[in-house]
Amino acid sequence: KKLSKDKVILIGILKKLGFNLKNKKTIYLIDSIKDKEFIKESLEEEKYIGIDTEFNWRNTYFPKLSLLQISTSSKILLIDCLKCKKLGFLNKILEDKTKIIIMHSSRSDTTVLNTNLKIKLNNIFDIQIAEKFINGGEIKNYGFIVAKYFGHELDKSETNSNWLIRPLTHRQLEYAADDVNFLIPIYKKQLKQLKKIKKEKEAIKVFKKETLLGNQELYISRLKKLKKSSKEERDIFLWREKHAKEKNLPPSHIFEDKFLKKITKKIKDRELSDIFKLFKDNSSAKDFLKFLEL
Question: Rounded CA gap, 240 and 228, in Å?
Answer without folding.
Answer: 18
